[in-house]
Every structure is written in C-alpha cells, then in structure tokens.
Amino acid sequence: MDSIFKTVQQHKELSLSERVAEQISDLIKEQNIGVGDKLPNEFELAERLNVGRGTIREAVKLLVARNCLEIRRGKGTFVTEKIGQVNDPLGFEYITDKIKLAEELYEVRVHLEPWIASLAAKRIQEDEKQELRQRCEAVEEKISNGLDHCLEDIAFHHYIASCTHNNVLSELLSIVTYSVQIFTRFKDPDMLQSTVELHRATMEAICSNDTKGAKANMLKHIESNLENIERLKAKQTSEI
User: By three-state DSSP, how is residue 239 classified?
Assistant: First the structure.
C-alpha cells in the first residue's frame, strides 16, 4: 500500500485537496479496493500522504461528490456501490417542462435503443436469456395488477443494454431511460398494452438472436412513445 501513497508533488495546477483526491482514487483502482470496502481512516491517510487531516477531509468530500466514496457515520469511509455514477447527472429532475424533455429524450432513444436491441440479439449469452424473460414478465405482472411498473420497466431496458456486453452503452442507457419515469406516471390503458406487447416481441426476438426483429420491435416501442407524447401535449393544452 505504501507505493500507492506517493508524495503529493505532481499537478501543481490542482489544489492540494484535489491532488490528494487523485491519490485516493489511485489507491482504489490500483489496489482493487472493491465495492463496499472501507478505506484507511483519516489519521492513517494523513500520515501516509504527509498532509493534514483537514486536507484529507476535503479530498474525501470531493470524492463523495463524485459518488466514489460514501461516509457512514460512526463506521468510516467506504467505496460506493456504483462508483463514479451520479444519479440524474444531467439534472433532468430540475427541468420543469417534462413533455419537452420527453420529446428530446425520444430523439435520442429512437436512434440508440433499436440498435442496442439488435446488438443484444447478436451478443446475448444463453444463460442471459432466462433472466431477460423474467425481467419482461416482471413488467407484465406489475401492469396486470395495476401497480407502478417504472422500476421493472427501466430494469428491462437496462438488462437489454447489458446483453450487448458494452459498458458504455449500459451507462448511456441509464441516462436516456429517464423518460420511462415520465411515461409510467400516466396510466393510459393503450400505452400499457403497447408496452406489454412490444416488450415481449422485443424480448422474443433477442432470445431468438433475431437482430432485425429485435431492432424493428424496439423501434416500434420507442415510436409508440412519440404517440403518447403527442397525446399528453394535447391533454396539457386542453387543460390550460
């Protein structure tokens, strides 16, 4: 571990706390400190890096803000479950016009997700097919029981992305599927039935390694969202 804690003399353009934060990040990566693992306490970090405890605290705050670390009161500092991933990184929650946001997300999803589905159909492993079926069924079960299916819907789309075995696509989808949260707030029967049918058609195509079918059905699914956007816009206009 000593080799990781090099003297903090590099990158003079950065503040001392920023340089210390980089050193702690190096520790996490190079020593393969895993999710949920505890870091050395601030006394040990300060001694090894030859800086004050105040600097260590500031560096830790920087890494907490980047969702690399979390502080558990009375227990210490730990590596987060989704290191470096920040919830709502683009601040969608603070955009007041959700209908316009849905339109803009549609423009991204209509190009991205059909291709993701096609790639998933090409790369999915045999042991992943049952899991995909179960995630599809989880959405159907929630809808049939009249329950909120938002989390299951997002999980279904995320799992399709994970079947591409491309980590970048999985992370991109975490951003664009924000629109799912918008649509699942509206309990339109036609929309729900379309979700069930097109989810299942997409799932079956992926599990059959049918790249064209997976792409076509996902495209239909995303395009159906545009119809829903128009419906919601009309409703919003009529209520003004």
Answer: coil
